[in-house]
């Protein structure tokens, strides 16, 4: 069969020598199965809600005469041969030729094709689905070569601009221009428009705006400006509900009231009425509510605001936990010996999230009464400033004047020997209090996560040097005899304002300033990051028996995630050092400090103990005016909730024990420097591991066991 295709500017035709050619020349059949000029098959364009599909725009209006494809049995499988295809409607469009070819290429029908209604409907939809046209009509016509198919298209305009309504939306017009810039100046394609709208929707979703809805234009205007309507999900109100144990938040027709004041809850919410709903922001708000430790459960639900269509109401169902507690216990420490403690605590006093504590500790070597009150966030302060104050009364046997191997210093009333001297232990009775303000450096944004934090405060205390019976005894004697032949062993326990004087009472007033930068990945169990702390405490004299000196301290911690030992299943299943089931780390800490001025001996630095060089007891290594300490530690999970550690501690007084008034460290032959090797095991708890450490003292075979909560650093 020989074919010749003639493709002109407006029509496509085929001349074929075929037994079926009579079909196209049969006017009766053509009139029966193809549309005439008056009876057309057409589609119109109408843009609906874009979120519910690709514009829902195909509306095929079929003439009653064109039903060949619906049931071929009823038509005896009769079809029509098309001899010509003519595309019209593109002539006055700037990109008309491209659109003519696009319409023709979208069709499966070609000149010479035998078609029925089904095929024609499919091609009509295909032309529309190309995205270039807002309207398509098809009609038949008798031509010189047979049945002619005329396709009339309504091209989309040249795209000039895409705009948002409202204009103050999250997505800016600049962002839109970046997306559509390559399409400006070309014919609007509805498929591409839908693809770009999907990109905008994903941008909203990725940023947490999960309620945002985008609607395209209801019709395509000839000016080429497309306006996208965006409903972003405005929050009209936030309502708090306090369901009881029965789950009901309404009692006798009235809302159940919670203990916590409403402003305490809402200050933790960055989500506010009038703002756009953001899932990520709300999730962070919920985490902050849990972090207050005021609530057992927080549930979120959304509801429409009937008075403000398109806006939502957020309902927070808050289950408050019990915030009052009574605690008690028995224990042992180097400084207190065997002790008993009792405490009363309320963490939501007056519904304002204030924490009040009364602690009573009765120890073998120490007794303390302390009352404290803290406000985690002063009301109305955008810097999230916290406040803390306390008052206390204590009696303790200071570690500065004791040594496990060299004995201790004994309290005496003067340097004159007497047969009535009792040589009891030194006791310091302290009465005082203080307050401090602390805030993150958030620039006035209370929801900004700030690594830096500052603190400023003031402390006051009166210190009395007494014995176990409460008698004032400002001196200390190394040798418990009534002869006291070596007066160099007798020192003044407190501050000495003048040579030869030794008051039995000191008054200390100090101002504190500290700053810290916390860049750790986890404050309880860090495996990466670092932390820097700097602090100063300036003591000022307010009387003859009041000293003036400055205490400086600095510390730096650094953690490196690692994976050296695979003891647990989580460690063996992954080689990633950041695997949450295999948290291993090498940790390093360096601490240093110095005191400038004349200080009382009891205010010197104590070296040794669970937070210092662990091979020594509390204050056993040195009583110094300056110090430096370093620790290297490897932490590794062992089994389920049990973890282990290997460590090296080292410290030195930098030769400053001799600079402490009275030289108590030298009198008690404290070494001043040393190191320890050791290891430990810990059981995971919410506040850190409950750990047991064992450490050597200079590899001398002398081992020390310590029990503590939380890592050393």
Automatic annotation (TrEMBL):
Bacterial surface antigen (D15) domain segment(s): 348-696
Polypeptide-transport-associated ShlB-type domain mapped to chain residues: 159-233
Entry superkingdom: Bacteria
Lineage, uppermost ranks: Bacteria, Bacillati, Cyanobacteriota, Cyanophyceae, Synechococcales
Major localisation: membrane
Name recorded for this polypeptide: Outer membrane protein/protective antigen OMA87
Keywords for the protein's UniProt record, in alphabetical order: Cell outer membrane, Membrane, Signal, Transmembrane
Domain POTRA residues, every copy: 259-314
Key word Membrane present: yes
Localization per record: Membrane
Matching InterPro entries: Bac_surfAg_D15, BamA/TamA_POTRA, D15-like, Polypept-transport_assoc_ShlB
Cellular component annotations (GO), alphabetically ordered: outer membrane
Short name of one Pfam family: POTRA
């Amino acid at each position: 069969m020989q074919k010749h295709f003639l493709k002109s500017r407006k029509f496509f035709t085929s001349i074929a020598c075929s037994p079926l050619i009579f079909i196209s020349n049969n006017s009766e059949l053509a009139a029966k199965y193809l549309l005439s000029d008056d009876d057309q098959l057409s589609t119109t364009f109408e843009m609906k809600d874009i979120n519910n599909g690709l514009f829902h725009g195909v509306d095929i209006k079929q003439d009653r005469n064109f039903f060949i494809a619906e049931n071929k049995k009823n038509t005896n499988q009769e079809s029509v041969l098309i001899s010509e295809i003519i595309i019209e409607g593109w002539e006055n469009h700037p990109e008309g030729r491209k659109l003519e070819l696009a319409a023709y290429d979208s069709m499966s029908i070609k000149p010479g094709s035998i078609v029925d209604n089904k095929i024609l409907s499919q091609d009509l939809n295909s032309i529309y689905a190309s995205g270039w046209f807002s309207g398509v009509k098809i009609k038949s016509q008798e031509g010189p070569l047979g049945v002619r198919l005329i396709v009339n298209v309504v091209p989309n305009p040249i795209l000039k601009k895409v705009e948002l309504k409202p204009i103050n939306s999250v997505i800016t017009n600049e962002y839109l221009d970046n997306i559509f810039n390559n399409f400006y100046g070309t014919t609007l394609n509805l498929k591409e428009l839908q693809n770009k709208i999907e990109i905008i929707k994903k941008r909203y979703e990725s940023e947490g705006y999960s309620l945002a809805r985008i609607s395209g234009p209801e019709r395509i205007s000839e000016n080429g400006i497309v306006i996208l309507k965006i409903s972003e999900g405005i929050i009209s109100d936030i309502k708090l509900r306090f369901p009881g144990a029965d789950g009901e938040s309404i009692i006798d027709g009235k809302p159940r009231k919670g203990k916590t004041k409403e402003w305490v809850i809402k200050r933790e919410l960055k989500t506010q009425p009038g703002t756009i709903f953001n899932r990520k922001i709300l999730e962070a708000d919920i985490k902050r509510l849990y972090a207050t430790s005021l609530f057992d459960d927080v549930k979120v639900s959304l509801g429409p605001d009937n008075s403000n269509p398109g806006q939502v109401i957020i309902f927070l169902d808050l289950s408050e936990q019990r915030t009052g507690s009574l605690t008690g216990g028995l224990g042992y420490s180097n400084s207190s010996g065997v002790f008993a403690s009792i405490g009363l605590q309320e963490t939501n006093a007056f519904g304002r999230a204030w924490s009040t504590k009364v602690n009573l500790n009765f120890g073998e070597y120490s007794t303390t009464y302390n009352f404290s009150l803290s406000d985690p966030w002063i009301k109305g302060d955008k810097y999230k400033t916290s406040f803390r104050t306390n008052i206390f009364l204590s009696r303790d046997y200071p570690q500065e004047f004791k040594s496990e191997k060299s004995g201790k210093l004994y309290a005496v009333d003067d340097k004159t020997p007497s047969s009535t001297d009792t040589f009891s232990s030194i006791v310091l009775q302290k009465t005082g209090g203080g307050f401090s303000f602390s805030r993150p450096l958030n620039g006035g944004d209370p929801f900004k996560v700030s690594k830096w934090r500052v603190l400023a405060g003031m402390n006051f205390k009166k210190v009395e040097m007494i014995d176990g019976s409460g008698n004032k005894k400002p001196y200390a004697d190394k040798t418990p005899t009534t002869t006291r032949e070596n007066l160099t062993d007798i020192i003044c326990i407190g501050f000495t304002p003048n040579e030869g004087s030794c008051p039995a009472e000191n008054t200390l007033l100090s101002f504190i300033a500290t700053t810290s930068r916390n860049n750790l990945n986890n404050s309880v169990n860090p495996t990466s990051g670092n932390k820097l702390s700097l602090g100063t405490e300036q003591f000022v004299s307010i009387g003859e028996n009041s000293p003036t000196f400055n205490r400086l301290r600095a510390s730096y911690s650094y953690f490196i995630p690692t994976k050296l030992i695979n003891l647990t299943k989580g460690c063996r299943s992954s080689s990633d050092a950041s695997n949450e089931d295999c948290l291993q780390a090498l940790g390093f800490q360096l601490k240093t400090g110095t005191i400038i001025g004349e200080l009382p001996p009891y205010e010197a630095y104590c070296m040794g103990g669970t937070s210092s060089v662990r091979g020594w007891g509390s204050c056993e290594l040195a009583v110094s005016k300056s110090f430096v300490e370093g620790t290297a530690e490897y932490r590794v999970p062992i089994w389920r909730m049990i973890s282990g550690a290997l460590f090296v501690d080292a410290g030195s007084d930098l030769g400053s024990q001799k600079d402490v008034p009275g030289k108590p460290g030298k009198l008690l032959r404290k070494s001043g420097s040393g190191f320890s090797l050791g290891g430990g095991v810990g059981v995971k708890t919410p506040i850190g591991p409950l750990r047991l450490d064992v450490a050597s003292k200079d590899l001398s075979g002398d081992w020390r066991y310590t029990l503590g909560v939380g890592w050393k650093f």
